[in-house]
Write a structure and sequence with these properties.
Length: 149
């Protein structure tokens, strides 16, 4: 092995790479919108309504997970969930869509007694990696902040 090859290998293993400080802090230069996760638990076969409405709204992802309840009958009655087979709709969306998401859920729950369920929204505190954030937020274009920094 030549001396030049040894230097290259040492450089790789020592991780002597230059860090470009101009691009290392994405949030200081580009607009980043907070992300939320919505969970809607409804009777089986009611979940597709929410997925369709959320996708029409423009959320990045919405999908259904099948569930089976094991709560006591008193709890099921109190929540207004007559069957134990459930659809759990999980949706990731931007903060700007939060009011519209709540509106869709409330509108459906007010529709009829058979369209009742439980829903809650929680914030995503952090996302590891720029590509993960861009996927979850459905960001196609990086918008620079107004102040330029």
């Amino acid at each position: 092995m030549t001396e030049k090859e040894k230097k290259v290998i040492r450089k790789i293993f020592k991780k002597e790479r230059k860090v470009d400080n101009n691009t290392s802090n994405y949030t200081s230069k580009y607009e980043v919108e907070k992300l939320f996760v919505s969970f809607v638990i409804v009777t089986r076969y009611q979940g597709s309504y929410f997925v369709d409405k959320f996708i029409d709204l423009g959320v990045s992802s919405s999908f259904i997970v099948f569930g089976k309840g094991t709560a006591p009958s008193e709890m099921i009655y109190a929540l207004g969930l007559p069957e134990s087979k459930k659809d759990v709709v999980i949706t990731i969306f931007k903060e700007s869509m939060k009011d519209k998401i709540n509106e869709i859920i409330e509108e459906r729950f007010d529709f009829s007694a058979s369209a009742k369920g439980v829903s809650f929204i929680i914030p995503l505190d952090s996302v590891m990696g720029l590509l993960s954030y861009r996927f979850m937020s459905d960001t196609k274009i990086n918008r620079r902040k107004e102040n330029g920094k």
